[in-house]
Amino acid sequence: MERDIQKKRKQRRRKKSSAAPLLVIFAMLLVIASGAAVWVIRYAPTTEHGSLSSYYTQRREDEACVVLNGQYLEPTEEESVYGRFIDGNFYLEYSFIKEHLDDGYVYDGTEGVLRYATDSQIVTTTLGATTYDVEGQQMPAVGTILQPEGDTVYILVDFLTNYTDITYYVYTDPYRIVVETAGYEKTEATLRRNAAVRRFGGPKSLILEDGVQGEKVSVLEDYGKWVCVLTERGTIGCVMDRQLKDKTTTTTPVKLQGRTYIHKHLDGKVNLVWHQVTNQSANARLPELLDATSGVNVVSPTWFQLSDDFGNINNLTASDYIATCHSRGIQVWALVSNIEVKVDEESVLNVTSHRDNLVNNLISACTSAGIDGINVDFEALSGSCKNGYIQFIRELSIACERADLYLSVDNYPPADHNLFYNRSVQADYADYVILMAYDEHNATTEPGSTASLPFVQEAVTKTLEEVPADQLVMALPFYTRVWTQDASGIGCSAQAMKKTSEYLAEHGASASWDNGTAQNYAEFMDGDTKVMIWVEDVASLNEKMKVGQQNQLAGLGFWKLGLESPEVWPTIAQYTN
């Protein structure tokens, strides 16, 4: 009996000892399984797909998201959507086009007209049209060209490709327009094998597209192990860098023929002087005034003034005046101004029919009188006129070229508040751009020089950033200002150059050279009034004219005929002959 009991105990011990290894193995398997589960959860790539709408957000059903040169551009809440899909066609918003693609399109919301000027042609289309006019010839489009909405308009993308050098691709679900500008450089690569294109870099990011071996992608950004790509199907997402091969740099091709802007230039340097003419009788003084000059080859009389809001002009032309100039080998470039009569420049420049009327009136007046050119002097314009103004220069230029007229445009020294005058576009279309390098100080400022040397130097340097030297004419003043300061405040009055010496002599004052401004400076007391004059004379003009010579500018201009001292002309000749 006792022996049997001991035997059973041994059997139980053997059973217990044989179960222990199994428990250890089971525990190890649990640990491995748990670790594998953790690894899968943490590291294994997800196969879950996400919607493209997680990347491309649409505020409205017909919105087409826009990718420009590899960058997805998303409008703010305050902006109109950049692209739309309407009646089977894709459109881009007007201000988006002007900012990112081509500033040449000018839309007139008053008359519903879109204009575009090439180097030699004017293109026109209107709301509702499926054709566009090119110098009288009707050209078909694939759909309605303009789609208005509120204060803006959307333009058919296919139409844009006629004049703006872009390549574009379109996609649906969601609507997308991928645009590349000519000359855009990008890195292209090929998928080594099928690859998930994920929303973000990382294996757990949702899949936006299943990339197929051999497909081309554009590499947008390199994050190291992951890169951001744009696929042939218009998806922006991430793949691992090792999944790419054959990386190469490519450039979006130029499809449109380059433009050639033709400029008429005088033989030699321009030596222009403006002649202020406010009535017909003022024309009669020309011979007397010219007799006191030498070397002048262009006179610009202030003959044309805007007379209303519709593009009509006052005209002070005189045939005898033109004959006198031509008999002396001098050209006449009639000036058109917006200063004399108060008009609504927005109406004149932004409304297409009014702008057309102005161009036609100017060309007609010049060709009928035998005038040689037009000088545009539109001052103190509002930024709201910027599109209409520069379109006026484009359209007037094309008309001048056909009429064999010179076109010159007057400009302030560049500053933040007048950059919309767009001197670089002026230089494309106008024959000459004239820099009015004066009025550094005036009645609205503190006392100072009318045109100090540093002011002129800076004005020329900044203008040359936009205008070629062989088109830039530097204009200088034949006047100065007499500044007064007393208990009541500061005042100033214009003083002709030829009168300054006499004025100083009458007051027993003299001027001495100021190196800072490079001109003579006089300061004296007239009773209780302090008088200050930064003198413009031969010496000061000579220093400024050196700036034109050093920069090889196209010539010189002067405001205005009759204010100069006779002795300035031999000095001017040194820089214009």
Give descriptors for this structure.
577 residues, alpha/beta, Copper Amine Oxidase, Chain A, domain 1, SH3 type barrels, TIM Barrel, eight-stranded parallel β-barrel, five-stranded antiparallel beta sheet, 35 strands, 32% strand
Structure write-up:
- With 577 residues, the chain is of the alpha/beta class.
- 29% of the residues lie in helices and 32% in strands.
- It contains 14 helices and 35 strands.
- A hairpin with an 8-residue loop joins strand 15 and strand 16.
- Helix 8 runs parallel beside helix 9, helix 11 (453-464) packs parallel to helix 13 and helix 13 packs parallel to helix 14 (568-576).
- The model has no long low-confidence stretch (mean pLDDT 95).
